[in-house]
User: Which sequence fits this backbone?
């Protein structure tokens, strides 16, 4: 009886192993079917999406889209120009060309310089005879030149300062 029970046990274990294998195969097949069904649904939905996108894009033309984008860009540029025009100060000294103003200022300075030069007194020519030695003449000439230069540069500096004060008063 023990031997019969052992044989039965082995047979049942074999059947259990076969049933377990069958169940594993069935479970594998079930999962494969589920995956196939999922793949079919995904593929079907992708087809629907492709058809929907085709339908949406039927009315769209790339040239029309490019034209539309150019129109939008142009309108944004116009809006920017309008904004710039509104934000700029209107007529507060911007209507003059700076180069022209600088040229006119230089002309006025040159006129003033010319007027100042008309009032410059040149030293008179000595009426006495020149010394016989050239060294003394050269030294006297240098001294006279330095005196004239020093006086004129001091006078010029004072005139320039006066002109700057007048210009500052006129500008303010």
Assistant:
């Amino acid at each position: 009886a023990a031997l019969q029970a052992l044989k039965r046990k082995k047979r049942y274990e074999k059947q259990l192993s076969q049933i377990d294998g069958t169940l594993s195969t069935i479970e594998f097949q079930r999962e494969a079917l589920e995956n196939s069904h999922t793949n079919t649904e995904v593929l079907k939905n992708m087809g629907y999406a492709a058809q929907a996108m085709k339908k949406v894009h039927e009315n769209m033309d790339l040239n029309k889209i490019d034209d539309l984008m150019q129109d939008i860009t142009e309108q944004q540029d116009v809006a920017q120009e309008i904004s710039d025009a509104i934000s700029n100060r209107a007529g507060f000294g911007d209507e003059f060309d700076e180069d022209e103003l600088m040229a006119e200022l230089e002309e006025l300075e040159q006129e003033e310089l010319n007027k100042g030069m008309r009032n410059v007194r040149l030293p008179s020519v000595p009426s006495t005879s020149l010394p016989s030695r050239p060294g003394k003449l050269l030294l006297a000439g240098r001294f006279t030149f330095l005196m004239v230069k020093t006086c004129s540069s001091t006078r010029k500096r004072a005139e320039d300062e006066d002109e700057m004060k007048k210009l500052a008063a006129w500008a303010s």
About this structure: The radius of gyration is 54 Å.
